[in-house]
Write a structure and sequence with these properties.
There is one protein chain. With 342 residues, this protein is α+β, with helices and mostly antiparallel strands. It has one domain: Jelly Rolls (Sandwich), CATH 2.60.120.330. Helices cover 26% and strands 19% of the residues. It contains seven helices and 14 strands. The chain has an eight-stranded mixed β-sheet with strand order 1-2-10-7-12-5-4-3. α1 packs across α4 and α2 packs across α4. It is globular, with a radius of gyration of 19 Å. The N terminus is likely disordered.
Length: 342
């Protein structure tokens, strides 16, 4: 799975579209270089490897990521335990207006997909957890700013999810610093846009699915946000599409996360980083469980391509947008409960 990576100058990155989408595997990137005590040469190597991966496939396996493996495993166990609860107990937590809670089987359809005409809902169920909102927060009650929902009979789900999201947020912060450098920006450039980050942890269950045309665990799509950090179990089923339309398997690799670029980061980077279509088909004859974590900007963040990143004669291809407006537009189109409420 490994591949060599060219070394790039962090301060003055060169950008070429020649290799974009030209891949037949997903590289492994050693994130130890993003640790606070890493030496500059090691950091430069890690940043260069991230840059190469995200400009080419938009995907990377992250090794030495710093998230305790016992916590990752406990989160997987809680994911399985939640989905084994009686249906009436899960339905009591049905997703609320703040996009938190249980989503029953086949209640999301990716109609905003730019890579496929999706007509059948995803064959999956999930518990959606987002960032905690203090009761006395000035923004409490605004869109996507409300309470999480957890099963009372399994308090360990809430405890583990909060601990897991705290560690994953730290990882997201380290990655954001590396990506800023890969774009020729100061390491802390993204910090101002993540003061109150928008966080999602989705505990997904994909039952065995029939091999039926246009039926997917997750239909072909690109992610909305900044970066996705996925932990999958040993079942497999994730596939990534290259520029030739070939679906490349992204099998699980122990002790790694799968990271991918979301649409807003692709726009922010003026197309340097690519948001690549991917899908899930669970044809394994086993249940599949995964736990994607989405690290996104503050709802109030103004996403605009920085002038400092643009080369001579290069112009920004995106119009500035408030991240919250952008995100809500996509959620409102793709989730049944939001369509009915609107």
């Amino acid at each position: 799975m490994t591949r060599s990576n060219k070394q790039y100058c962090i301060q003055y990155p060169q950008w070429s579209t020649a290799m974009k989408g030209e891949f037949d595997n997903i590289p492994i990137v050693n994130l130890s270089g993003l640790a606070a005590d890493a030496d500059p040469a090691e950091r430069a190597s890690t940043v260069a490897a991230l840059k190469s991966a995200l400009e080419t496939s938009g995907f990377a396996y992250l090794a030495n990521h710093g998230v305790p493996e016992d916590l990752v495993e406990r989160m997987r166990e809680m994911n399985v335990a939640f989905h084994q609860l009686p249906m009436e107990e899960k339905l009591a937590l049905k997703i609320n207006e703040f996009h938190r809670g249980y989503m029953p089987m086949s209640t999301s359809t990716i109609v905003t997909s730019s890579v496929a005409k999706v007509t059948k809902p995803n064959r999956s169920e999930s518990l959606m957890v987002m960032h905690e909102v203090p009761d006395d927060a000035a923004y409490a009650g605004e869109p996507l700013q409300g309470p999480n929902q957890f099963p009372e009979s399994l308090p360990e789900v809430a405890e583990t999810a909060r601990a897991y999201m705290a560690e994953m947020t730290k990882l997201g912060e380290r990655i954001a610093g590396g990506l800023a450098e890969a774009l020729g920006l100061p390491r802390d450039w993204f910090d101002q846009h993540f003061v109150e980050p928008t966080l999602f942890l989705r505990l997904l269950h994909y039952p065995e699915q029939p091999d039926e045309e246009q039926l997917f665990g997750s239909a072909p799509h690109t992610d909305y946000g900044f970066v996705t950090l996925l932990k999958q179990d040993d079942v497999g089923g994730l596939e990534v599409r290259n520029k030739h339309g070939e679906w490349i398997a992204a099998p699980p690799i122990p002790n790694t996360f799968v990271m991918n670029v979301g649409d807003i980061l692709a726009k922010w980077s003026n197309g340097r980083f690519v948001s690549t279509p991917h899908r899930v088909r669970n044809l394994s004859k086993r249940d599949r469980y995964s736990q994607p974590f989405f690290y996104d900007p503050s709802m109030r963040a103004l996403v605009a391509c920085p002038d400092a990143m643009l080369g001579v004669g290069e112009t920004a291809t995106m119009e500035p947008v408030l991240y919250g407006d952008y995100l809500l537009e996509r959620l409102n189109k793709n989730y049944d409960y939001r369509k009915k409420a609107s």
